[in-house]
Amino acid sequence: MEEKPKLAVDNKGLEPIAEESRLADAPLVGRVSRRSFLSHLGAAGLAATASPVLAVAAAPAATVEPEVVPQAGTVPLTLKVNGQSHTLNIDPRTSLLDCLRENLDLPGTKKGCDHGQCGACTVHVNGRRVNSCLSFAVMHPADEITTIEGIGQPDHLHPMQAAFVEHDGFQCGYCTSGQIMSAVAVLKEPVGPSDDDVKQAMYGNICRCGAYSNIVAAVQHVRKQA
């Protein structure tokens, strides 16, 4: 059964009027319509969500510098190799040979026996030849270290390197860098003039290919030129 609209009497008591009609004709002062309420609610929600997004978009991205933390068990070390200083953090048990090859990317110094018996790892420390496999890198913070890379380059060979090429002082080439480093040191050492003297001076450098006679010839060639 359809419900009849409620009636109300106007303020003059003249005739009944529908309550809905009275409310519709009433002034909007102090009243909020459903449409107005939802509109304001939507605007407020948009402002609440958009403001942080806009703020984040406007703010410049922060640059985070990665913190360099030395690994546990390492020690700081500065080595001067071939005239250049290198600052490192290494295991104190690292040999000079491994430091040159692995940390400083100088692979010209070869690892042969790793026991000081073959001479393939020969370098100069303060002008004297040493087996780098028998020395810890941390023992040389104030020393001048020279490797085969510091002796000469392909476009500017040391006279000893050129002599090894001229006299075929190598075959497989694995021992050659150590042979050359020892041969360069011989030029400054009190070594006799004969081939046997040179052989004795080069005794610590082994050539498994057996190119000894050519190696001696190369050393003697440079000694005579000097």
Structure report:
This protein is an alpha+beta fold. Among the domains are: 76 residues, Beta-grasp domain (Ubiquitin-like (UB roll)); 74 residues, Orthogonal Bundle (DNA polymerase, domain 1), CATH 1.10.150. It contains 8 helices and 7 strands. The chain has a 5-stranded mixed β-sheet with strand order 4-3-7-5-6, with helices on both faces. A hairpin with a 2-residue loop joins strand 3 and strand 4. Helix 5 packs across helix 8. It starts with 6 loop residues before the first strand and ends with a helix. About 16% of the residues have low confidence.
Provide a brief overview of the structure.
Helix 5 crosses helix 8.
The ordered H/E elements are EEHHEEHEEEHHHHH
CATH architectural arrangement of the domain at 75-150? Roll
- CATH structural fold name of the domain at 75-150: Ubiquitin-like (UB roll)
Kindly estimate the percentage of residues that lie in beta strands according to DSSP. Answer: 5-15%
| Strand count | 7
Could you estimate the helical fraction of the residues in percent? 25-40%
Low-confidence stretches: 7-30, 46-58
CATH class of the domain at 75-150: Alpha Beta
Q: Give me the side-by-side strand order of the main sheet.
A: 4-3-7-5-6
Number of alpha- plus pi-helical segments? 8
Task: Report how far apart the termini are.
Answer: 130 Å
Shape: elongated
The largest pleated sheet is described as: 5 strands, mixed
pLDDT average, as an integer? Answer: 82
The secondary structure category is: alpha+beta
Whole-angstrom Rg: 45 Å
Q: What do we call the CATH homologous superfamily of the domain at 75-150?
A: Beta-grasp domain
